[in-house]
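Observation: inputs received (chain + magnesium ion).
Thought: call the complex predictor directly.
Action: predict_structure
Action Input:
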Amino acid sequence: MDTDLARAWVQAIAVAVGRHKDYLTQLDSAIGDADHGTNLDRGFAAAATAVTDLDADTVGAVLTKTGTTLISTIGGASGPLYGGAFRALGKALDVPSADPEAFAAALAAGLESIQKLGTAVPGDKTMIDAYAPAVASFEEQARRRTGFATAAAAAADAAEEGMRATTPLQARKGRASYLGARSVGHQDPGATSTALIFRALADTTARP
Ligand code: ADP
Ligand code: MG
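Observation:
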């Protein structure tokens, strides 16, 4: 991944989130406060604009700018969680171009940031349930040297599987946890947006 690809990724996330804004909000209306789509749409639209105008020498500069913009524009739990994750990615990628191994390590730093701030573990019905398996898949592909596009596609598949697996879970973190057993039977909005973020990465890197 180079700076152009990093920019294209953030722009692709903004498009995907914009397209699925109502769906994300609908999921959040079932087990939250019905703002996840509008939150993320506002944040990623601002981030896409910010990185388009940014004069960046490193992948990290693009992703750090994305994180900072998300933190300052998204209200709610997901702003600091996603913002912190993108900043962690940015900090780990202080290079003009990153190979799959370096990107895998950065994704792991992003996961660590989300878990440090939110203290959620897999199975708590949060974005972690999509993010953690995506990182594990990306890492495995990086080890097998299958290339960036293959690693990103495997990560997106794993994120989507993790997203679907949140439906039967009872939420133990965030707003949805206030519902107790009533949170069962609904797909987690944050896990859904994480799956969109990884699918956007796969789509961006698959382009010839
Ligand atoms: P809010 O809950 O403040 O309204 P959003 O609706 O934007 O924020 O985001 C909700 C999503 O954030 C949840 O679906 C969940 O995936 C994620 N989330 C909430 N709390 C945590 C946490 N402690 N750790 C990880 N993810 C969390
Ligand atoms: Mg919400």
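Thought: report the result.
Final Answer: The pocket of adenosine-5'-diphosphate (ligand 1) is lined by residues 28, 32-33, 35-36, 39, 76-78, 81, 114, 118, 120, 126-128, 173-175, 188-191 (CB under 6 Å). The domain at 3-206 is CATH 1.25.40.340 (Serine Threonine Protein Phosphatase 5, Tetratricopeptide repeat).
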